[in-house]
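LOG
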Amino acid sequence: MAQGLSAWLLQRFTAIYLAIYLLVLPVVLASLWPLDFLHWRALFAAPLMSVATSLFALALLIHAWIGVRDVLLDYVHAIWLRLGLLALTGLVLLGSLLWILRVLAITAATSYE
């Protein structure tokens, strides 16, 4: 019971963060108008935006993991298939997180400002 509640709460908290980020991002981008590559790169190289975007990526992947996990647990009944799909999902999400963090680290390291 407690595990289900904690997963439910975690998915709700990640959804709130995702919504806030997606509401604030257009405002930030509009403040940099006209937006070119140098402005874009400088924006995501800034520490605050880099951390916010990293947290966004982490929240998105946690949110996706909980949703996919729940669907697989509910609808895939063969244990071997369920475990394989869960492992594949976990690897894809982990690889995605590492790739996103690498891109943000490269952006911060090669800032033009």
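LOG (cont.) second protein
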Amino acid sequence: MKRILGIDYGSSKVGLAITDPLGITAQGLETVMHKGNDKILLKKLDEIIENYEISTIVVGMPYHMNGTKSERAEITEKFLHKLKCKYNHIKLETMDERLTTVAANKTLNFLQVDKHKKKEIEDTLAAVYILEMYMNKVKL
């Protein structure tokens, strides 16, 4: 069964999430520290695509609360272009990611996760939320 990969693309950290083999649930995969170097991230994505049958990549698109594109959205669009060129055999989608990091932080606070550990997993959890929103939208 083909899987869907969710990406919360940030300037220095990227959260990754993936569907289970049946496409029923989304689970956190990892947070990649790339410090602005997309080559590091693309190398990690090569590994994931090789190890899992990825049919779709969903990238969170950062908009302002009023719905307009943020500066981050322009940077994210450049990253999307790299994905389209490199993985032209994989469907590429975007999802509005507004408030996913806020929701991830609220969840981690509710669970009383240590603040140092929280920094390591908040982007991965945000990617899970992005992926879940996409799954709900397309009703896998």
